[in-house]
Design goal:
The chain has 445 residues and is α/β, with parallel strands linked by helices. It has 2 domains: 11-37 and 314-443, Beta Barrel (Lyase, Ornithine Decarboxylase, Chain A, domain 1), CATH 2.40.37; 38-234 and 269-312, Alpha-Beta Barrel (TIM Barrel). It has helices at 11-18, 21-29, 38-54, 71-80, 89-97, 114-122, 132-141, 167-180, 198-216, 238-247, 274-282, 292-299, and strands at residues 33-36, 59-64, 83-86, 105-107, 126-129, 147-153, 184-191, 224-226, 302-305, 316-328, 331-336, 357-359, 370-375, 384-392, 401-404, 427-432, 440-443. The strands form 2 sheets. Strands 1, 10, 11, 12, 13, 14, 15, 16 and 17 form a 9-stranded mixed β-sheet that branches. Helix 3 (38-54) runs parallel beside helix 11 and helix 7 runs parallel beside helix 8 (167-180). The longest helix is centred in the middle third of the chain and has 19 residues, at 198-216.
Length: 445
């Protein structure tokens, strides 16, 4: 039995699809491409800021740049005065080059290079320190201004995490910050937490507020905490998602590939994006006492957050052209002009489940449903963009387009590779859309 898992309806994307622009771009660019809708990024950023304002919490949103390499989203951060979360020297340079001020950057990631630490310190970026030796190197870098530091807390709820300082290391880090005097400005604490649950984030955030109060006794500034990212995105309707999880099995995939529910990103979330932030702020850390929002206000602590995927929700899709279709017993294999390296879920031995939309310019065809998986253009047997036998409304043909919806968050370029000398799919920015005219586009770089 076939399973269907369409993305939520998206009127803006449907307008782009109906305009005929994608066929022209596929012809002109000569291969797969991604299109970007930066106005969605603007709206998502505004929603997170509204959640902070409605809770009367002083806060700052940093866009996690690793979620998408496109320059346009960093441009939007610079224009809106938002921060950017970077984890490499290249990302830092890109952010600065697109107008983001150094003091609006937060530098994360483990075991940062000497050059990254030096440039970040000189630009006045906030640096999340993940280890004692990193703190020592940062203090030694020095400069004409105090080095701005966040100490990253190891999450006790995730003892196998490789990130953060445990209790003993954190105590020693505070001692070293205090001893460093004016060379260091210890501004607070942060954490890296896997998963998407509200409760653990609120609980750990509550711990960080208490740590700020203790650090102030040592004469440290300690007036902000970072809860990182991990705000879920709701890609598909609840009913379809629940049915999929209950019914999916090897028979639904090419080569009877087996997945378990835990292999998949949670493509449906009843509380997602800025609403997840609202839920975190409303929760009581530890399940008792005042809400996190109230604790932040009472302690005079600012909340920093680093969403990536959630700021990119609805902000772009990936387009491939059908190069061939072959029939197998009961289903087909559609091969496109790109590879699965442009959809990054296989990095996690998983599958991008919101199913692609078939765009065809053929008129009058009888719509006979046709199940097919989607293969890439490489010579690897495992190169499948979609292992699942998606039921298309008609049999795809050479020249038709497949649009994978809502791929801006991590999917487009986390794992991209010019394998076989195939060019990386370019990014097309669509920055004017109205019902009366054609969308206006430009290349991202």
């Amino acid at each position: 039995m076939a399973l269907t898992l369409p993305a939520h309806p998206d009127a803006l994307a449907e307008h782009v699809h109906a305009s005929g622009l994608l066929s022209e771009l596929a012809h002109g660019l000569g291969g797969p491409f991604h299109y970007l809708l930066p106005e969605r990024f603007d709206a998502n950023l505004a929603a997170f800021r509204a959640a902070l304002a409605d809770a009367d919490v002083e806060g700052r949103v940093y866009y996690a740049k690793k979620a998408n390499k496109a320059a346009v989203f960093v441009d939007r951060c610079a224009a809106a005065g938002a921060g950017v979360d970077v984890a490499s020297l290249g990302e830092l340079r890109e952010a600065l080059g697109h107008g983001v001020r150094g003091e609006d950057l937060v530098v994360t990631g483990p075991a940062k290079s000497e050059e990254l630490l030096r440039v970040a310190a000189r630009q006045g970026a906030l640096i999340a320190v993940d280890a004692l030796d990193e703190l020592d190197r940062l203090i030694a870098v020095g400069g004409h201004r105090p080095v701005r530091v966040l100490l990253r807390r190891h999450p006790s709820a995730q003892p196998r995490s490789r990130f953060g300082l445990d209790d003993e290391q954190l105590h020693e880090a505070l001692r070293r910050c205090a001893a460093a005097g004016e060379r260091v400005r210890m501004e607070g604490f942060g954490f890296h937490l896997s998963g998407y649950e509200v409760g653990p984030r609120a609980d750990l955030a509550g711990e960080l507020v208490e740590l700020c109060l203790k650090a102030r006794v040592l004469g440290l500034q300690a007036d902000r905490i970072s809860i990182g990212g991990g705000f879920p995105v709701d890609y598909v309707p609840a009913e379809a998602w629940n049915a999929f999880l209950a019914e999916q099995g090897p028979a639904h995939y090419h080569a009877e590939k087996a997945f378990t529910a835990s292999d998949f990103y949670p493509y449906h979330s009843p509380v997602a994006g800025a609403d997840a932030l609202r839920a975190i702020l409303a929760a009581s850390p530890g399940g008792q006492g005042p809400s996190l929002a109230k604790r932040l206000r009472e302690a005079g602590v600012m909340l920093l957050l680093e969403p990536g995927r959630a700021l990119l929700d609805g902000a772009g899709s990936s387009v491939f052209r059908i190069q061939g279709v072959k029939d197998r017993a009961g289903y087909g294999i559609a091969t496109v002009d790109g590879t699965s390296l442009s959809l990054s879920e296989q990095w996690f031995n998983s599958e991008y489940l919101p199913e692609p939309v078939l765009l065809t310019e053929r008129d009058g065809d009888a719509e006979v449903p046709y199940p097919a998986c989607v293969g890439g253009a490489s010579c690897l047997d495992s190169d499948l963009l979609t292992w699942r036998k998606v039921v298309f409304p008609t049999r795809p043909q050479v020249g038709d387009l497949l649009v994978y919806p809502n791929t801006a968050g991590y999917q487009m370029d986390s794992n991209e590779s010019p394998f076989h000398e195939l060019p990386l799919p370019p990014k097309v920015v669509i920055d004017r859309i109205d019902g009366a005219g054609r969308p206006r586009w430009r290349l991202d770089r």
